[in-house]
Amino acid sequence: MDEIEDREAKQRLFDLISSKWPAPTIVLDFETPNSTRKENCHKADLFWDKDEALTLVMKKNLSSEDKKTGYIYVIYFPGSPGKLKVGTSEIHCKDARFKNHQECFPGCDLIYCKSVGNARRVEQIIFTDFEDNRRLMKHPCSNLNCRQKHTEFFEVGKAELFARIDKWREWMDSMDERPYSKGGVFNIKASRSSPHRKSVRESIGGSSPPSTPSKTGKGPPSGSIPTSFFSELEDSGYGSEPEMSGGDSCGSLTSQMESVKIK
């Protein structure tokens, strides 16, 4: 009981201080990238290239949690330009329960929120795809009810990130060649149509280093994206100041979010 009262007292003090001082900038440790990984993020540097790592992630059978339809979202931090947080949620960003993000990241804005089947597997794939861009929070979260070092931060351009997420969503929800059976078993034929990180990064001027040749010579081949896709990308405002992506008009986190556990 004393512990609960103490925690509540600390939170009240924190809320009082937060109301009088500007929100702190998200501090990232760029000297130790990739120093922390969740279990659902493959240790891609054990392999010769990302194709091999992505293939291993894709081939793993879906768990009951992986099979759930959900939303992939991206959060932008005005105080830390160039750093984006990627995550997944079973609820839509319009749901008031999404507000919990605002408690951990005051002033942040939701700039992408789209639904996809097998949402957690898509998140795992995206984390592996952008492993080179992943960054770790240097200090624990200032939210006293959280206090963890969030790890889903990526130093990458919005246009590049949105393009990759959209291509993986299209691949996962493809009606022509479903990547997974109803039982969650991977369809090996689907690997031939999966997005290839190098071709997309080069097409939109991505800064990440290109993949080296695979030691096996195998892996998902390059997927082509028509030129019109990138002209539409520019028109959509992906490369401009943060706006909600796609047709899901979710708005700002400040007024619309509550209570989704931050991973």
Automatic annotation (TrEMBL):
UniProt-recorded name of the protein:
Bacteriophage T5 Orf172 DNA-binding domain-containing protein
Sequence ranges of Polar residues compositional bias:
251-263
Taxonomic placement: Eukaryota, Fungi, Dikarya, Ascomycota, Pezizomycotina
Amino acid composition bias (Low complexity), ranges on this chain: 203-228
- Region: Disordered; residue ranges are 182-263
Q: Where is the Bacteriophage T5 Orf172 DNA-binding domain?
A: 70-169
Q: Which InterPro entries match?
A: Meiosis_regulatory, Phage_T5_Orf172_DNA-bd
Which Pfam families does the entry mention?
A: T5orf172
